[in-house]
Amino acid sequence: MSKSKDWLATAGTDTKLCHIGYDPSDYHGFVNPPVVHASTVLFPNARAMETRSQPYTYGTRGTPTTDALCRAIDELEGSAGTILVPSGLAAITVPFLAFLSAGDHALIVDSVYSPCRHFCDTMLTRLGVEVEYYDPEIGADIERLIRPSTKLVHTEAPGSNTMEMQDICAISEAAHKHGCVVTIDNTWATPLYFKALDFGADVTIHAATKYPSGHSDILMGTVSANAKHWQVLKEANITLGICGAPDDSYQILRGLRTMGLRLEHHYKSALSVARWLEARDDVARVLHPALESFPGHAIWKRDFKGASGVFSFVLPAPSPDRIKPKAHAFLDALQIFGLGWSWGGYESLAVQVNLEDRKIRKGPTDGAVIRLQIGLENVEDIMADLDRGFAAAAAV
């Protein structure tokens, strides 16, 4: 096998996923990288130690294992550099701390992942950053919210739980006119279905816990930046001393090898289930960007190459006091679907989402919002399980 990987530049997605990040010829031909555990790294002499004139200097600054994953993510993102952090939430908080200071103003999409909102409303506010939430469908009109003190615009496409689509191109163009950094939580689509840096984002964030892992057993986040913002992100990460572990990096890199195949299955199965739900009389509406009926479908079709396995639907209730009992009956009757907060693994999951923290874009009031993660099970079995839930809800 040739050590040159120039052919990867024109290779297909699944081929790239099989080969990026690590070259077997670098380590005796083994097809997977070694797991290098490290804290202390020795230097050959005092001068080398003083100048840090070797690739590795301390465990928090990377090992061959973590570097292999970072190189793979950079290949997928088209980024200048990637940092690894212990969770998806840390992947949000580290760039916020990197690019925001006391007195700054940050614009955060109102459909944001709720732990991100909690960080903004507590720690970020306590540090002197003014946080303002905006409608996810604002598009270019976000410019009217930008002040001289606005330094960061955070996006999430689609939005958590209710799946609102954002026009990342329009938002980025407006934000860049005023020198703002644009960050995006791109966990739902991954860079396979939405290459965020190509659409104007400066920093793209992923909970690698989800699809890169794929097996519900690893916590990790990745943050990738373009050339303009890479050094600031890198320095903040070093200053905070936050890093991804070699064992977890190895597992995420292994998960990447099959991510394309898994995502394709999630995409097809979830869309089939979404269309099936849309045809039911006991579903108020289905919140899935790939459905033609969804308000943000045109943006999804224009910018995205696919959809993942997560979407929501509204389970109707005749009155507000019946919303929770119907939702609980539906969820408790499920057998294949697990009741769990995460997603991106091989198994189907369901949860009633809480939208009470919304400030600008309020959630539906005519029923419970049920978020589904459609796993890798047979679609017929998934639909049969959901049928059990609907029967139980109807009896309440």
UniProtKB/TrEMBL annotation:
UniProt xrefs under InterPro entries: Cys/Met-Metab_PyrdxlP-dep_enz, Cys_b_lyase_bac, PyrdxlP-dep_Trfase, PyrdxlP-dep_Trfase_major, PyrdxlP-dep_Trfase_small
One Pfam short name: Cys_Met_Meta_PP
EC top class, as a word: lyase
Enzyme Commission number(s) from the entry: 4.4.1.8
Keywords attached to this entry: Lyase, Pyridoxal phosphate
Catalytic reaction(s) noted: L,L-cystathionine + H2O = L-homocysteine + pyruvate + NH4(+)
Stored NCBIfam families: cysta_beta_ly_B, PRK05967.1
Family statement: Belongs to the trans-sulfuration enzymes family.
Protein name: Cystathionine beta-lyase
Organism in which the protein naturally occurs: Rhizobium rhizophilum
